Structures are given as C-alpha cells and as structure tokens.
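Deliverable D2.4 — example input (structure tokens):
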C-alpha cells in the first residue's frame, strides 16, 4: 500500500502538481493524504482478517498423543513436533502431527491428553488449524 502511495506521490510531484490550477495546493495535499489513510486502512483490514481455514474449515477437535521437542529450548520458544488424534464429526478419526514453535507459556498447555478445537480444510484433511485460544479457561 505504501508503494502505491509512493508511486502516486511521485506522479503528483513530477506531473500532476504542475498541471493543477493555482491555489489548489492545500486541497491536493489533503486528497493525497486522505488517499493514503484510506489505502492504509484497507490494507490493515485485509491483513487482520481471519484465515480462510478459520472461516471455512470443518470444526473438530484434536487430542495430543505425544509432544517431542525438536530443538533445545530458547527464550522465544521451542520447536516441537506434536502428535495428534484428529476427530471431525462425520469422518473416521485419524492421526496427524504438527510442528509448531511453542511459546514458553504454551508448554504447560500442550500436554499429552489435552484436547483442542481445530479446523480442518475440507479439501485436504492434512491441513489443520489448531485453535487453543478458543478453549474455555
């Protein structure tokens, strides 16, 4: 979005500003800045939308069977392979695994036997979105 605004600004400075009637500089600047704010707002709305899988995936749940760290713990988290039993209503339960960076506070949540809500891609059941933030506390 900023690149689009920058292109419009360069076009305005080099060409359009010189062709505009005298006395309209303030209005031109307001329009240019208003366009930037509009583009920035649209870009932020687009960037913060829910992922497609969260909107259209089949609801189900996953039970953690095993948790295996893949790297030593770091301050930012721990790369972990999580083995799951995935259940989607109307389908046969199946096994899967997710490799995920666990934050330090998530280590106490992702334990064998815990169950989390998930969303499963209707076209590819191996594409799974864990939703631990939807669990009741």
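Example output (designed residues):
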């Amino acid at each position: 979005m900023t690149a689009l605004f920058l292109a419009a600004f360069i076009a305005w400075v080099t060409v359009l500003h010189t062709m505009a009637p005298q006395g309209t500089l303030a209005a031109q600047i307001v329009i240019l800045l208003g366009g930037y704010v509009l583009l920035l707002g649209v870009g932020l709305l687009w960037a913060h939308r829910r992922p497609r899988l969260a909107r259209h995936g089949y609801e189900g749940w996953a039970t953690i069977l095993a948790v295996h760290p893949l790297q030593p713990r770091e301050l930012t988290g721990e790369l972990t392979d999580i083995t799951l039993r995935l259940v989607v209503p109307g389908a046969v339960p199946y096994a899967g695994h997710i490799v995920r960076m666990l934050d330090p506070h998530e280590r106490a949540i992702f334990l064998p036997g815990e169950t989390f809500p998930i969303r499963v891609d209707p076209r590819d059941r191996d594409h799974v979105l864990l939703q631990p933030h939807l669990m009741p506390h």
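The mean pLDDT is 85.
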